[in-house]
Write a structure and sequence with these properties.
Elements lengths: L1 E3 L2 E3 L3 H12 L38 H17 L6 E2 L3 E20 L4 E6 L2 E10 L2 E4 L2 E2 L13 E8 L3 E11 L2 E7 L17 E13 L7 H5 L4 E2 L3 E17 L1 H11 L13 E22 L2 E20 L12 E16 L3 E15 L3 E20 L11
Antiparallel strand pairs: 1-2, 3-13, 4-5, 4-6, 4-19, 5-11, 6-7, 6-8, 9-10, 10-12, 12-14, 14-15, 15-16, 16-17, 17-18, 18-19
Length: 403
Amino acid sequence: MIVIANKTYRICLCCCLSLMMTTAIGASIPEDSDTIVVDSLLPTLTFSQPQWQHPDSVKKPSFLKKVGKTIGKFFKEFTDIDTTYIEPQRFDFTAMIQNTNSYEVYRVNTESGQSYAFAPEPSIRIGPYFGWRWAFFGYTLDVRNIHVSHGKTTSKQYDMSLYTSMLGVDFYFRDVGDDFKFRDIDLGPGIDASRLEGLEFKGVKSTVKGINMYYVFNHRRFSYPAAFAQSTVQRRSAGTPIAGISYTRHKLSVDFERLDQFFKEHLPDIEVPIDTALRFGTVKYIDVAFTGGYAYNWVFAKNWLMATSLSVGLGYKRSSGDLKEHGFSFRNFSFNKLNIDGIGRMGIVYNNTRWFAGISGILHVYNYHKSTFSTNNLFGSVNIYFGVNFGRKKEYRWMGKKK
């Protein structure tokens, strides 16, 4: 508010600033003037108003573009890592030699207390592997279970695991035929069956096939590939919760007529009563389980890593059996029940980005229980490996040059 010639005028802040600027640059105002012309001092302001558009005229991204953008963000998460914890692979190619040892045990139990544990001889495989970026190929030869007369093994085993920062997948197929031996047997009180342990029994066959998928929550700082695929290097210790789902089909066949004959041959002085609940031909069951657990990578020295992981699953099992004894009800083998399963992993690896070596293992445990009959299946493998990375990626080639 300014008083000029005994009159009061209200002017805006812009007017005040304009007056001050005009005075600062030397503009003169007559002292005897009763009025001041200020319109030439006011700045000219121009405001542009946005043009209104009808919502229907605005071009929206197509459905395919939205889907593509979403998928792109999803796949970006696979490689989104915290480089202070995880060092990415610097090379395009990998060569490795690996020894794989596989194990399997089936245990059959009855309500009366009889139990039979069957297990084949562990398979020992060795062979070369070659990798290009994310693709890895290899071949292993079973050096123990080759039958010279047939030129092939009686068992077939395929195991494959895919590890990414965020997701992991295990595929497995195991078909073990007539290579089982008694590992432990309990025929009841008063019967010494220890002399049967280690003897080969041709009356057992088993098949296991399935898939296990899991999600790694802390995938930016925790790396499964660093421990089990050697495609990254864990630089700082980190842990993470994991959750997933698995689907498995099991099939167990036991020839108890052959088992009767086996007992008569090796225990001629003892009459062995086989529990009626075990006199089936084949038991099949499907296992669908939701799993959850925790994994931890411990960097205990430079370039060294120890990894542990344990997942426990609540599995829903549906099964059926073919009975050969008319006096036993088929309903006893139609199970719809929840059981606890488990998957464990452990590994120790040395990796300086160029050379790597280590040992790792994975173990699957499946349980199938009913009051009159139950089975426990345990199988897994242990890998011992040594390899080298070469062919430095373009973005890391400067690191290989000597200064």
